[in-house]
Design a protein that fits this description.
There is one protein chain. The chain has 124 residues and is an all-alpha fold. The protein has one domain: YppE-like (Four Helix Bundle (Hemerythrin (Met), subunit A), Up-down Bundle). 80% of the residues lie in helices and 0% in strands. The protein is built from 4 helices and no strands. It is elongated, with a radius of gyration of 15 Å. It comes from Bacillus sonorensis. InterPro entries: YppE-like, YppE-like_sf. This is DUF1798 family protein.
Length: 124
């Protein structure tokens, strides 16, 4: 049996990471901050990658077990790819502002749908 509470906690952690990355990107564009790759960027990217990998595995199991409306495997896989990208890009600010915003909104949309579905908890 899938632990939906654990999945909810993981989902909220990814929402936090996405929001944090967005704020860092905004601040970096304004201030032009430089970050040490090995001391700051790589550990943050690695942490995100691990968090997303664990979440993805549980999310895929959740979708298979509960068949939530409007949440599909492809979206979950996109969250993995896009969240890793925005966390990494948030340190460099080399990505076009509109693309960064679109990726972030896409990630947050899917994560919030997932969060809402888990909280709703009305399973067929």
């Amino acid at each position: 049996m899938l632990d939906t509470q654990s999945l909810l906690v993981q989902t909220r952690e990814l929402i936090r990471l996405a929001n944090e990355a967005y704020k860092r990107y905004q601040k970096g564009r304004e201030e032009g901050a430089e970050h040490d790759f090995f001391k700051v960027v790589k550990p943050a990217a690695d942490q995100c990658e691990q968090a997303v990998k664990s979440w993805l595995s549980d999310s895929l199991a959740y979708v298979k077990e509960y068949h939530p409306k409007y949440i599909y495997e492809e979206q979950l896989r996109s969250v993995e790819e896009n969240l890793n990208e925005i966390v990494m890009q948030s340190y460099f600010c080399k990505i076009h502002k509109k693309r960064f915003k679109d990726l972030t909104e896409s990630v947050l949309y899917t994560l919030k749908n997932m969060e809402d579905d888990i909280q709703k908890g009305d399973r067929d």
